[in-house]
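Instructor's aside before we start: the two examples that follow are unrelated to each other. I chose them only because their records fit on one page, so don't look for a connection. First example below.
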Amino acid sequence: MIQRISPNQVNFVPRRYITDNILIAQELMHKFRTSKGKKGFIAWKVDLFKAYGRLNWHFIKNMLEKVPLAWDPPRNGDFKLNVDGMRKIVTSDIGVGGVIRNSIGEWIDFAVVVTLIMNPETAGTHPLAGLLYGRWDLMKKISTCAIQHVY
């Protein structure tokens, strides 16, 4: 498999997301447009920490201020769930994905949350238990639906 998949292919790198690359590319292009150096010479300092699972809320807020959207980071101790979905018209298949971040911008590993919720001893103690139980209730109304952790 390693001969067929490049280590640069983000979809196959654990804990890497395509959106991280998009945000880095946007940051690079912004830096490129605003740089005032000699033509033909270029040096960029890129915060590679942003490429792995975490993004600084200040950075995200600055990026989103350039787009006409209303958005606020979650309050301290809260979590935010962003979802996106699609439907194939021909087959009527539906897919939904979500990203959960905490108040300091860390991605929440949904596999860990599902594991905690499935354990009767920890089921009600995790801060995301209410969110997951709400999804379960919604999923019960749909005949063929399941939660999966996909990387």
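Example two begins here.
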Amino acid sequence: MMQAGIFNIHTDRFSTRLGKYERILTHNGIKCIRLDIHDPDFWKHLENLDLFIYEGQKHTVATEIARSVLPVIDHNKHIKCIPGISTFWPCNDRIKSYYLLRQTGFPVPQTYIFWHKSRALEWVRNAPLPLVFKLKTGIGAQNSFVINCQKQAKLLINRMFGKGVCVSEISSSRDQAYKLYPERILDKASSEMRGIFSNMSEFIWEKQKNYVLFQEYISERKSEVRILVIGNRAFVLEAHSHDQYGSVRNNLNKGYQGTEELCMEMAFDICRKLKVRYITGIFIVDKENRPFITDLTFDIPSDTEVVKGYWDHEFRWHNGPFWPEYFCLEDLLVIHDMKHPDIS
């Protein structure tokens, strides 16, 4: 009988996503056991596993644990893993993702990464403004905002090569007044997030420092699309069309614009060339109908609960509802008649 181990980082709760994996597996007669890294028999439990499921790539403690255990479980014990080590390595790291995309020939906005303060300060004298400042963690608006002047850029360079920045949810869409004072933005966001997570004893404030990342800001854009690809399925999670009247969110459960097809096609191609099972990407199509990928993570977004359907690689619509986790299991375990729990 097939058996799956589900590893949960949290000491006081079981995550919604892991609960979905567990429900899908038990619905198909696959035994599940919950694993605890502090259990003295943790490694003994792995001996009878066919599948190891892990979550928490965006959590600092979880990332450190994954770096320690996933290579052993995936490469040495040859147990199928979600995520596998090849998927985990660049997950939630904009710098690694940029290097991968650039070397495989995908169109990325011009990106400037500096590992030395002097080189960054020398470059910023003639930097093409505006720019988008990004921490290496996050996707989309997370931990990023637009820089409009050289003074702002210099402040950020000095901060990143000084005391650094705590990993925070810095949104480009809020606190507009604070954008003029990057130091105050970062301090304010860090303070807010520290209060939210103050009762989470396992949460560690990871400092982001000793690098700086700026990206070209594409102001003339036709659309912006967030796409999750699992195998040969594309889930268009969010899409906005841009015109002289502003931004309009599209309903992609009934149809799509031509620009979304361009982005889906690129997303499928990224999965194939990087040889990964799933990705989530942020795509921008400019006024000349050229698609760019601005952010990439090798993860299912935490805010993706139920999807109403998906597009296949020939852009045919398949009606849901579905849990994306179901397709991860179906592809990895190669169970083509896997049953989906009733979630209607």
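The first strand starts at residue 3 and ends at 7.
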